[in-house]
Amino acid sequence: MARRKKLYEGKAKVLYEGPEPGTLVQYFKDDATAFNAEKKDVIEGKGVLNNRLSEFFMTGLTQIGIPNHFLKRLNMREQLIRQVEIVPLEVIVRNFAAGTMAKRLGMEEGTALPRPIVEFSYKDDSLGDPLVPEEYIIAFGWASQQELDDIVSMALRVNDWMSGVMYGVGIKLIDFKIEIGRVWEGDFARLIVADEISPDSCRLWDMETGQKLDKDVFRRDLGNLRDAYTEVARRLGVMPTNV
Ligand code: C5P
């Protein structure tokens, strides 16, 4: 079998050199980690589900004109993506209080926010991805003011679309994280959505029962993670045949 050059291995994905310049192959592993990899497990089939679900969300974004890194799915666990220079931020959009926000502000999880809130963490595992104000981002040059404005409006458009899609299948989009990459065109950097969008990076609650259908099932030992992700895939009509 042809060997491909591994460029990066993260907690849930591996990036290999792609067939054409400017492309990469993104491989979805079955590994689940939480609390900055203090908690780890292998959930058989998770990679296959997330490959499909990220394809679903990214192609949907393409259809509504939000540029992203997805080019095509190659097989059950791999997709061809555009190579980007990652902006070192986790861009988090919240519609309802949960997770670190609920804890920080002493709010009950599930409380509706007055409007969607966008926040940023600095991507650095050794620091535990600390929350950072916009002021830091500009001052340290992680993104320009114009880029930051564009990132916020892109994140809110992603939120509008995803909230609607999930609402249509009886799921509340509580919050999610996206990453943004730069594609250089001469001196100009175009921003696109990168990394992945999957139940690993979203909070998804069943509208009727409040059942969690996302990575909190693993983080908080609430049941079978694969069943939860399979339910999301089933409702969205993207069930892989061979998980
Ligand atoms: O933990 P917190 O409440 O800040 O997470 C907000 C959202 O961002 C959740 O949907 C979570 O799954 C996602 N997230 C992520 N990767 C991180 C941190 C948060 O996907 N490193």
From TrEMBL:
Q: In which pathway does it act?
A: Purine metabolism; IMP biosynthesis via de novo pathway; 5-amino-1-(5-phospho-D-ribosyl)imidazole-4-carboxamide from 5-amino-1-(5-phospho-D-ribosyl)imidazole-4-carboxylate: step 1/2
Annotated PROSITE patterns: SAICAR_SYNTHETASE_1 (PS01057), SAICAR_SYNTHETASE_2 (PS01058)
Catalyzed chemical reaction(s): 5-amino-1-(5-phospho-D-ribosyl)imidazole-4-carboxylate + L-aspartate + ATP = (2S)-2-[5-amino-1-(5-phospho-beta-D-ribosyl)imidazole-4-carboxamido]succinate + ADP + phosphate + 2 H(+)
Name its GO BP terms in alphabetical order: 'de novo' IMP biosynthetic process; cobalamin biosynthetic process
Q: What is its EC number?
A: 6.3.2.6
A Pfam family reported for this protein in Swiss-Prot or TrEMBL: SAICAR_synt
Domain SAICAR synthetase/ADE2 N-terminal per the UniProt entry, residue ranges:
6-235
Q: What PANTHER family does the entry give?
A: MULTIFUNCTIONAL PROTEIN ADE2, SI:DKEY-6E2.2
Q: Which HAMAP family match?
A: SAICAR_synth (MF_00137)
State the protein's name.
Answer: Phosphoribosylaminoimidazole-succinocarboxamide synthase
- The species this protein was found in: Yoonia litorea
Source organism phylogeny: Bacteria, Pseudomonadati, Pseudomonadota, Alphaproteobacteria, Rhodobacterales
